[in-house]
Amino acid sequence: RSVMEKILIRQSLRMQNMQRAWQESPEGKQMLSLRRSLPAYKEKDKLLQAIAQNQVIVISGETGCGKTTQLPQYILESETESGRGAFCNIICTQPRRISAMAVSERVSTERGEPLGNTIGYKVRLEGMKGKNTHLLFCTSGILLRRLLSDRNLNGVTHVFVDEIHERGMNEDFLLIVLKELLPRRRDLRLILMSATLNAELFSNFFGGAPVIHIPGFTHPVRALFLEDVLEITGYKLTSFNQIDDYGQEKVWKTQKQLVPRKKKNQISALVEESLNKSSFEKYSSRARDSLSCWSPDCIGFNLIEAVLCHICRKERPGAVLVFMTGWEDISCLRDQVKAHPLLGDPNRVLLLTCHGSMATSEQKLIFEKPPLNVRKIVLATNMAEASITINDVVFVVDCGKAKETTYDALNNTPCLLPSWISQASARQRRGRAGRVQPGECYHLYPRCVYEAFADYQLPELLRTPLNSLCLQIKSLQVGSIGEFLSAALQPPEPLAVQNAIDFLKMIGALDEGENLTHLGEFLAMLPLDPKLGKMLIMGAIFRCFDPILTIVAGLSVRDPFLLPQDKKDLAGTAKARYSAKDYSDHMALVRAFEGWKDAEREGSAYEYCWRNFLSAQTLQAIHSLRKQFNFILRDAGLLDADAATNNRLSHNQSLVRAVICSGLFPGIASVVHRETSMSFKTMDDGQVLLYANSVNARYQTIPYPWLVFAEKVKVNTVLLRDSTGVSDSILILFGGNLSHGVQAGHLKMLEGYIDFFMDPSMAECYVKLKQELDNLLQK
Ligand code: ADP
Ligand code: MG
Questions:
Q1: What is the pLDDT of residue 429?
Q2: 61 has which bridge partners?
Q3: Distance 366 CA to ligand 1 centre (A)
Q4: pTM confidence score
Q5: Cβ(426)–Cβ(212) below 8 Å
Q6: Which residues contact 270 (CB under 8 A, 6 or more apart)?
């Protein structure tokens, strides 16, 4: 026997003892009986047998039946019991960080051990696992990343891919890679888990893998649609705006690719019938004129409030789960509800929120029982639809929408819009009300609209830009990107794939022959959007790392500048204070972040955020991302050990501006000055507008001919979310392909560009840095 084997045997014995001790303890016994009451338990033997006998199986079952927390645990337990615990290595993927963290925490509690021991988790840039970890919950992105460097998943015995019904991009991608891996790893077991019943699709993809359904018990849930809700609550749709709340007209327009035309007409005809016809006509003509940008208040907060009041006054006890579209909505509604005499009374209502970026402490509260006579109301995104189960929910309020990115390949623009959910999602949301007793679901849209919903949501692979994905495919060395993606469950459009390839060539991650460049290899390693990765590398090379680090971290979390619906002006003014006439949202972000660090040292961070309309939570997230990115770049050998060296040129604003440009290119818009106004044009779209909260939206003129931006979003019109002004010289030197951008010819031109080289010693630096750059690019 090898030494390794002996160690594993010894470790297995230890695991067996620990497991037995826990199962015999009073707490362990109690936990076991709780776990045995879950529907999955009845199928345990059948499942273990099926997994032993088949390389791939598909499991479907009602949300909450115990798939995620129980099934991987059954394998771990049975292996441990038979004295082989240390020989198994189980990975279970989750579509979201927060579910990976919540589930691993739950499973380790169920096993009576601290997290990071046998059970661990790993999400982007964060994790808790140790050398004894044998069941790892991670995001699907993490597993993909691991596959880049470990193509055979050596040592892994079981892979669970969870929530596949959501059809997330990473899950679809994983399935292609795993399908290709299975013949090479005959001993590897793959278990796919799904909440809804389109399991056949996945089974067929794997050549008819067996499907096991876990029958679950849920109580009946009464479905109420808008017409019923209006009657019950006595709420009147008085103004057109409130019809607008359900924005039918808007959604049909923006979702044209997604909703078949026939269905669209059907919806519009039916809505006209179900709501007062004449007012609807007036409404639609008005709506067509005023299709301004979507704002968070169009969900109809007043109606939601009316429904909540109705439940609190008239209904039996039980928690309420409200499905909203996103964090902005949730926080606006929360503020509104808090000011309400009944709903805002903490002795009667416990108001909680559930979304991707919530704090762990809040996360725990969601699962807890509220005090007697206090009603728990949880405002949630569609995260609570399937990945998180709140047991005591009896009432569900469903606004019918989810914010998702759709991708318009023709314009190569992602659209972030709340769009109608599918019938499958609506049913799923409704089902959340029947976990403990019969429930009610208030769908805030007419029944006819529900009937016109698509059966299932479009897979993410078909509705998002494929830049990162294509880069990862390339680094998997599986040949042509197009060919690889054509093996997907539902392959994306060739145009979308071509756009991504063109983009990667443009930024210098792929060469003309579609081969990964050295830069591309670095970018594939970074857990970042490729263009942000490039900006970060450039920041390191050009020795202005710190501000760039903040910008990259900010762009990859979300904007810390808040824009409350009713205080837009004040918030805009607050943000403008950070702009210091440098015409850059990105530099405003750097200043805001640095101000926050100072305030934190003085102990006034809370007040600082409040006064300046900043989200403390987001700043905190930026802070921790900065640390992580810093670590990764240092690890990759791109940073000097001495922080001062890396920041030697951080004070040079033109240089920082140039590095921003090098990362964000080809996101550029030209500034067209008119007498009293400006307009902006991107390379492909023509006219674009600036987001209202952009510092550049506050000026009448901008002393730069170009704006670079990270994100343009289509919200009826195309908006630039963030921008930085850049000069011609910066664009020539830093725009475009990294390897082409800094050519010898350019160096000669430099002498003329004094705005860039205000400091004559800079030219010298530039030449040195160019050499460094060349070294980086040389294979
Ligand atoms: P599924 O994956 O089938 O949707 P889960 O395995 O996530 O189901 O959950 C099984 C049960 O465990 C559910 O009833 C759920 O409410 C409960 N549960 C999950 N996480 C927690 C937690 N953190 N605290 C208390 N109960 C939990
Ligand atoms: Mg689950």
A1: 92
A2: 214
A3: 12
A4: 0.74
A5: no
A6: 446, 448, 449, 451, 452
